[in-house]
Design brief:
The protein is an alpha/beta fold. The chain has helices at residues 3-11, 71-80, 103-117, 162-167, 185-196, 226-231, and strands at 61-67, 85-88, 128-133, 148-149, 172-177, 200-204, 211-212, 244-245. It is built from 6 helices and 8 strands.
Length: 254
């Protein structure tokens, strides 16, 4: 088994009911720990992350962590220590000259593997903590020919349905994000579907306390062609997820 496979199965245990939603694409690109520059030191960040905003795992809330870069991954490790099952939903690839730099994300997947391996295994029915990168639609570097465009979005089908969540004892969802008010537009399509199906939704900023969130109806909500419209301009990768080179413009001679 490769290093990436070992790390994938540490983050995504086969007996978890939430594992089918984890995105494997980044795990397939993981090098060995010794090959990742700037590997984390002995005091991993998850130990200082505040999880008091999250209810006890026995209360069966689902969590969505929408923070930048590798912050959701470290938060997921801290929540695993509290009894939750982290679900990695990063759906993009690393590449040369990337629009979104994933170096810290790759490092943290490996370091998180080591941290998770030292924790008691979560119960098979541990409630989920879905982890997504708030930078996914941003441009740290403006897309241009010769760059690797790995921007991405979340879609409703990337998450379990409200019916599945309820069948597994979940009756509320808590979003942790660094925004005031409403969630990111693509995530609003997910949360509103859950809310309309009867799940309570709350939101908090890091260091804050969850408060009820009434999700505003986003543009093209439940539109038949929504997935095609929202992914227009993004670049799919043959290995799964998003990410490919923007071709250089060639100039033909007359």
């Amino acid at each position: 088994m490769t290093s990436g496979e070992n790390t994938y199965y540490q983050w995504t245990p086969a007996d978890s009911v939430w594992s089918p939603w984890a995105k494997p694409v980044l795990f397939t690109q993981l090098p060995g720990p010794a090959d990742v520059p700037g590997a984390p030191q002995e005091s991993p960040p998850w130990q200082s992350i505040d999880t008091t905003w999250a209810p006890a795992a026995t209360q069966r809330a689902a969590l969505v962590i929408d923070l930048p870069n590798d912050a959701p991954l470290w938060t997921g490790v801290a929540l695993a220590n509290k009894g939750y099952q982290p679900v990695v939903l990063y759906n993009c690839c690393a590449g040369p000259k990337p629009v979104l730099d994933l170096e810290a994300v790759l490092r943290t997947l490996i370091a998180g593997d080591e941290a998770l391996s030292r924790m008691p295994r979560s119960r098979r029915d541990a409630p989920p903590a879905f982890l997504i990168d708030a930078r996914r639609r941003t441009t740290e570097r403006p897309p241009a020919p010769g760059l690797f465009d790995n921007r991405w979005v979340v879609l409703p089908q990337d998450f379990p349905s409200a019916t599945f969540l309820k069948a597994n004892g979940v009756d509320r969802v808590i979003l942790l994000h660094d925004r005031d008010g409403q969630p990111a537009d693509d995530l609003a399509h997910v949360l509103l579907r859950w809310q309309e199906a009867g799940l309570a939704v709350a939101a908090a900023r890091p260091g804050g306390t969850p408060a009820e969130l009434r999700v505003t109806r986003p543009s093209r909500f439940r539109a038949m062609w929504y997935a095609l419209l929202v992914t227009a301009g993004l670049r799919a990768n043959s290995a799964g997820g998003f990410g490919s080179l923007i071709p250089e413009v060639s100039h033909g001679g007359g």
